[in-house]
Amino acid sequence: MLLQVLLLSTCFGYPGNFALQFIAKEGDILRVPHESSMNGPLIDSFTVELWLKVERNAQLESGRIVNLIGFPGRHPFLGLAADTGCAIVQLKTTNNTWYSYEGTTQLDDGQWHHVAATWDGTKQHPADRALALYVDGILEAAGGEDDDATEVPKTPDATGLTVVNKCETGLCEEGMQIGGLYCCSGGGYTGRYFNGTLDELRVWRVARTEAQLGEWRSLPLNSGDFPELLFYFPLDEAGMELGANVVESRALPWYAILGNAKGAGRPHWVVSHAPMSCRPGSRAPICRRIESSSVSLGGNSLNNEEDQTDISPAALLGWILVSALASALCASVLTYVHLTGTCPPALAAAAATIRGLANSAQGYVPAALGETASSSPHASPMPSNAAAAAADWRWAQPPRVSQPAFSSPMRTLPPAPSPATPKSYGGL
């Protein structure tokens, strides 16, 4: 199955573009353990974004909102309304309620969509603390029961609510969860599982602008160019996960775990059809590997992981096919020799042709069987084919003590030895 995924990845998008498929009825989930960087920088401002392809959910065990990226009991929380198929973002308030902003674009149409949610709670004036929800780069019109149906960012702090803006005891002690939701304080999994495929998960410390989201949503990132990027899971590690169930973040050196604590509920690797592409000169690692279609042999100094040249999947597949054909040919020749005791005719003819070409390059044309030695322009007349063969062998021997060295192999051959007084030439 993994080999099929690797081969198909060269046919869609860019080579090596993978995603994770979540099956709701199997309880698939991706868990990011708690790390202190998840606290303050995400509670007062954030951007969460991803590509997704939604399969319609069956009846949820509880509630109506499916988790995409979220934290138990706090924001950020980006989800999907199971009954409408629309995206929804929620903020936790100080009176222990949730402020929701639900979109109007139905995402469960079997197509790939980009979804992003931003919150900037760091502004001084409540009216400037904006919550926004985008689908495919466009700000969503609010369509929830309590929404105003306008296409403008929401300002909950300006309506008399107070959004939580700092971590307190017990609030920020859970990690980030993707595709499922494990409820607070060991309450167990809620059953609110996502049914579909996710790719290019990004979590930022700041609220990205609409222009920034539109420019970069279809481009792989080099995390070193974006200091505000906290977690980046491009999900291109199919077959390369650490420990077989761990996926690395390409920004903060952290990790995500496939499945739950019992080892079940692991999402499946699939080829991603999300409309991602590499712009010329991109510094993203996947784009640099594609641009470098062959391994550099020039002795350049080794750089860090992002600068190293790699073999593309297409080139690797070509080497595998060539090696397989060469192995099959060698096996066929050895089998023929073992069964018949002779070299295959085609191979023997090829060897004879090569020998003839080599001799011609040296200016020596040996007498062929069925010819007299006089047919060779470089040999003296010989009485028989046996004499010609003896002469050929003599030319291949080093000079003996009693035999003067020939001044040039291109000169006329000396007379063949008399049959009555044969001389020894090595093995004859």
UniProtKB/TrEMBL annotation:
Pfam families: Laminin_G_3. Residues 44-211 form the LamG-like jellyroll fold domain. Keywords: Disulfide bond, Signal. Residues 371-428 are annotated as: Disordered. SUPFAM superfamilies: Concanavalin A-like lectins/glucanases. Residues 373-399 have a biased composition (Low complexity). It comes from the Eukaryota. This is LamG-like jellyroll fold domain-containing protein. It comes from Chrysochromulina tobinii.
